[in-house]
Write a structure and sequence with these properties.
- The complex is a heterodimer of chains A (160) and B (196).
- By secondary structure, chain A is mostly helical.
- Chain A has a single domain, classed as Up-down Bundle (AhpD-like), CATH 1.20.1290.
- Helices cover 60% and strands 0% of the residues of chain A.
- In chain A, helix 4 runs antiparallel to helix 5, helix 4 packs across helix 8 and helix 6 packs across helix 8.
- Chain B has 196 residues and is mostly helical.
- Chain B has two domains: 57 residues, no CATH class; 108 residues, AhpD-like (Up-down Bundle), CATH 1.20.1290.10.
- Chain B is 59% helix and 4% strand.
- Classes of the chains: A mainly alpha (160), B mainly alpha (196).
Chain lengths: 160, 196
Amino acid sequence: MDIVDTTTLKAAGIDDYLSVNSFLQKRENIFDLTQKAQEAVLCPKDYGAYNHELRHAIAARICLLNDDQITADHYSFNAGTYRALIDPGNTGHDFDLGHVLNFIDKVATRPRDVTKEDIKTLQKAGVKDPDIVRLAELNSFMAYQIRLIAGLRLLKGFES
Amino acid sequence: MSEFIKTFTREVPDWKPRVKPVSLDEATEAQLDALKITPSNTKVSDYVLTLAHDVESLKVRSPLFNAIMYDKGGLKRSERELGAIAASLLNSCIYCNAVHMSRHAQLEKDTSVTDSILADGENAKLPDRDAAIFQFSLKLSSCPPDVSNEDLIDLEEAGLKQDEVLDLVLSTALFGWANRLMHILGDPVKPKNDNN
């Protein structure tokens, strides 16, 4: 895949990196690996308790928690039946996912406040340890990508 | 009984997972395959064994981490570490903060920058170029990210070139990721071999 076709550069609004953004060429491998990491957390073969549509809804929700509507739009398209959960105001109780979204929102917005009690709460609600790791990986990747995109927009002189 | 570490330090702690790591005896073929490509082949850490629960992420994360922190050119190593330190401070990840303060001190052969951060945290008074890097990384790490064109101008005025700013964005963003694994999935604890 050409790196201008990656979600990261598209969401940053960079579509002509060869002529305009030659500084990106030196790090082409990183943008390629970033796209592979995105596929690993959004569309894994072994998705555990959280299918691809739900993962896209969670990704878009995390973008909105970070005031990034443009990147949210890249993910919301594939949220399918979980589309309602993109709205950070939706508690997820209708989907029996209140505990999951509480955890997602806290890790995304206030990671410093997360304690082992938050992990115990998930475990008591029946979330298996591999699924806790999967939720953390999805959240972590989104934290990375959203900040990378924010930085790229600055470097491009992007005005939002 | 593990003794949890609750204050920032440059002495690298051990890490105690809050979930049960993958047991090598019970690991799947895919997990064993992914574990081979981690930086340490001799002893697999509890951290890597924990991440092996999500094997597809683990497999791609290690080469990405190494590329962002170690690839040649652009921002010098210790300044990438400073981005990691700022993110880990803001996100209160004591483990990542310690690892990267320690590396910064080794690379610079000087502890004055990390001494200042240990003493005054986000208000640390640093030399101009380090201060611009540190403040930018703190702002990029917040939720939502809080960087503006003025911050980019501050970096340029401190002497950073465009490719160096990209490397700083990458290392800071990467620790938005790493902190949300290390600080969320485990606790920093006093090293077992530490008798002090």
